[in-house]
């Protein structure tokens, strides 16, 4: 083999081995950072018994590492058929978050949310009165065969959505609560409901 080609071959081989050597470490470091961020957050449904529908619960199960939440349970408290809902979430420090989550109707005076997000209207294919539907990505993180299920394309909350809270606060021990709630409803008869007293401030 010509010396010039041997040198190019050796250099290419060296660069390839260097890339292989560093890639796993970078990947592991990114995974560790993602796990660390996930460990700072817990989820709570914001129970609102006076509203026509609420997030009754959620499922974690087998989610990708970068996903915080991909499955929720929405219960209708209305006497009318629900055609679609919007879901919202807000991040608080633990004490404030738990206090807001466990208030039965009107939310108490609260500090400003550290972060918030939500969905567009999610079509529910006519949720009957007093029934519950599962809304989640496909496949569901937690399987519930035989129940009413609606699939969405995007997880409700990802690590990228909330990691700024941990990075800004710069505390390894602080925990945060992510509150889940129904922010708006469209009924089958065309009427709409919007939460008049949003949970905390936007």
Number of strands: 12
Summarize model confidence as the mean pLDDT.
82
Helix segment tally? 3
Instruction: Sketch the major β-sheet.
Output: 6 strands, mixed
The low-pLDDT segments are 4-9, 13-21
Strand composition percent: 25-35%
Order of helices and strands: HEEEEEHEEEEEHEE
- Structure classification: alpha+beta
Question: In the residues, how many domains can be counted?
Answer: 2
Radius of gyration based on Cα positions:
23 Å
The rough form would be described as globular
For the record, give the distance between the C-alpha atoms at the N and C termini, rounded to a whole number.
69 Å
Helicity level, as a percent range? 25-40%
Gist of the model:
The chain is an alpha+beta fold. Helices cover 27% and strands 33% of the residues.
Summarize the helices and strands and which ones pair or pack.
Blueprint: H1 3-38, E1 41-45, E2 53-58, E3 67-69, E4 71-76, E5 82-93, H2 94-101, E6 115-118, E7 122-127, E8 132-136, E9 149-151, E10 157-158, H3 159-169, E11 176-187, E12 192-194
Parallel strand pairs: 1-11, 8-9
Antiparallel strand pairs: 2-4, 3-10, 4-8, 5-6, 5-7, 5-11, 11-12
């Amino acid at each position: 083999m010509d010396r010039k080609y041997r040198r190019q071959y050796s250099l290419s081989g060296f660069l390839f081995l260097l890339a292989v050597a560093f890639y796993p470490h970078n990947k592991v470091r990114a995974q560790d950072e993602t796990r660390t961020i996930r460990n700072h957050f817990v989820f709570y449904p914001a129970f609102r018994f006076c509203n026509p529908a609420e997030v009754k619960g959620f499922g974690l199960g087998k989610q990708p590492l970068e996903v915080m939440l991909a499955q929720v349970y929405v219960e209708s408290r209305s006497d009318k058929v629900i055609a679609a809902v919007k879901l919202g979430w807000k991040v608080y420090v633990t004490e404030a978050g738990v206090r807001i989550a466990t208030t039965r109707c009107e939310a108490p005076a609260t500090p400003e949310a550290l972060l918030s997000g939500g969905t567009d209207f999610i079509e529910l294919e006519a949720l009957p009165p007093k029934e519950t539907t599962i809304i989640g990505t496909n496949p569901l993180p937690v399987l519930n065969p035989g129940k009413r299920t609606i699939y969405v394309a995007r997880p409700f909350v990802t690590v990228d959505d909330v990691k700024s809270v941990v990075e800004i606060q710069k505390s390894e021990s602080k925990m945060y609560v992510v509150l889940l709630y129904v922010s708006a409803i469209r009924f089958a008869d065309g009427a709409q409901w919007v939460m008049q007293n949003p949970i905390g401030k936007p």
